[in-house]
User: Which sequence fits this backbone?
């Protein structure tokens, strides 16, 4: 003790393990076009009334919410004068000044015109009064600025700002037919041709990487309906999925055959699930059935299963909502290995069957590594790894002591026990390897923790072994 105290003191001890929270798994990253998306609106203020012919309208020079911070004030004085301070405009006018006499010098003032446009409504012959400080209002930022991540929290109302043209509005409808998902939307510009639009989509995918910083949400399911069938876009989605610990769903061309889809699957790895064919939906605007890429509904289905059952569940054999058919017929039988559906699954392509409704059929990524065959295994590892990583900022730069080691291990083990109770894993354990945590590594500020876990695997192939047993004939005479 370095100080004298005749009394009571409380010293707070900051040791102990911390609980680990699972990161959001069902965040969809969607990229596409929406040329009719709502533009930014400039703030404005109208002073006076048309009846008295003393109306002047002030409109912010720059559209967006920033204009709502501009204010005006009119006071009486012997001489006309204008003082602009930051975003406040103070105007001194004569008692008998008309609107037209005030508007003209305001337009010619450079400091005023830098902030607002000044327009007369009517002739402006009426006498202009004075007003205390009033702010412009109604300024709105662009709802979906180009190549910027924006979030839609399962709201069709919010999605209306995308308009009806382009790929994004229909893709949002595909997703929301499955559930009210959280969607990170990136809007890109239509190019002069298809190649330029694809280039814009590829460049816009970079916005997925900044979504966590800008919005607080990291996309885990990446899709680009109407564009992912192009190999360059699909490859970019796979690259971004790798960096984000995400999965991406890739469509085939509308007229691709099932054998084409199997060739496409050979070009990708563990973070890609190839989908075939497209789906038929009823377009209420066109009043007829149209074909749509399946990736939007597959992403919505994945988000719905995450919410209803958990990220560790397969989305295969789960119903797809809002479709009336598939663009290509798919034959399937529960026990026949030679059906189109089974051949597709065997070659790492997911499809759709019709049995008690339309259902997603397929568990597999494009990986040739048996460890990452199943999509749910890849996602389970991603979610657990990210959750452990993000919840240990508190542990960075602390002194490496026995208590510190024990606290980190206990925190991770507690989390793994919680996941086991939920059914997300079969089991798991965290420990500190003494062979890795040498005196040399600790002196460098490096400490190692190992943990393992076993995810549940889907019952993809169920085998009943049937025998003919005539011994039961004895029961006839019992």
Assistant:
């Amino acid at each position: 003790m370095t100080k004298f105290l005749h009394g009571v003191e409380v010293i707070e001890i900051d040791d102990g393990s911390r609980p680990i929270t699972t990161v959001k798994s069902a965040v969809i990253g969607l990229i596409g076009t929406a040329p009719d998306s709502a533009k930014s609106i400039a703030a404005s203020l109208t002073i006076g009334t048309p009846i008295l012919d003393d109306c002047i309208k002030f409109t912010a020079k720059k559209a967006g919410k920033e204009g709502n911070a501009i204010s005006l004030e009119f006071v009486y004085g012997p001489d006309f004068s204008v003082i602009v301070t930051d975003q406040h405009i103070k105007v001194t006018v004569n008692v008998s000044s008309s609107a037209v006499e005030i508007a003209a010098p305001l337009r010619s003032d450079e400091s005023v015109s830098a902030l607002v446009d000044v327009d007369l409504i009517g002739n402006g012959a009426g006498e202009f009064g004075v007003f205390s400080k009033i702010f412009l209002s109604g300024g709105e930022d662009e709802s979906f600025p180009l190549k910027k991540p924006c979030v839609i929290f399962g709201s069709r109302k919010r999605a209306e700002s995308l308009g009806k043209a382009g790929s994004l509005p229909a893709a949002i409808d595909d997703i929301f037919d499955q559930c009210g998902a959280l969607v990170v939307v990136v809007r890109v510009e239509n190019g002069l041709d298809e190649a330029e639009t694809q280039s814009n989509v590829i460049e816009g995918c970079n916005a997925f990487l900044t979504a966590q910083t800008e919005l607080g949400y990291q996309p885990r399911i990446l899709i680009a309906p109407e564009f992912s069938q192009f190999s360059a876009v699909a490859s970019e989605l796979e690259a971004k999925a790798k960096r984000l610990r995400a999965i991406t769903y890739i469509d085939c061309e509308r007229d691709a055959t099932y054998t084409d889809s199997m060739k496409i699957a050979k070009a990708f790895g563990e973070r890609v699930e190839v989908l075939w064919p497209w789906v038929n939906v009823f377009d209420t605007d066109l009043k007829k059935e149209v074909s749509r890429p399946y990736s939007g509904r597959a992403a919505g289905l994945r988000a719905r299963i995450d919410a209803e059952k958990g990220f560790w569940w397969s989305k295969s054999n789960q119903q797809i909502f809002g479709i009336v058919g598939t663009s290509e017929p798919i034959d399937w039988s529960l026990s026949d290995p030679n059906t189109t559906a089974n051949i597709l699954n065997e070659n790492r392509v997911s499809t759709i069957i019709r049995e008690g409704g339309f259902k997603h059929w397929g568990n597999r990524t494009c990986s040739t590594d048996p460890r990452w065959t199943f999509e749910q295994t890849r996602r389970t590892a991603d979610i657990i790894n990210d959750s452990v990583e993000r919840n240990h900022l508190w542990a960075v730069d602390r002194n490496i002591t026995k208590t510190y080691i024990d606290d980190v291990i206990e925190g991770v083990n507690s989390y793994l026990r919680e996941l086991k109770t939920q059914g997300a894993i079969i089991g798991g354990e965290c420990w500190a390897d003494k062979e890795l945590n040498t005196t040399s590594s600790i002196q460098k500020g490096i400490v190692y923790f190992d943990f393992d876990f076993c995810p549940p695997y889907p019952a993809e192939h169920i085998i009943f072994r049937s025998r003919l047993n005539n011994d039961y004939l004895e029961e006839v005479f019992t």
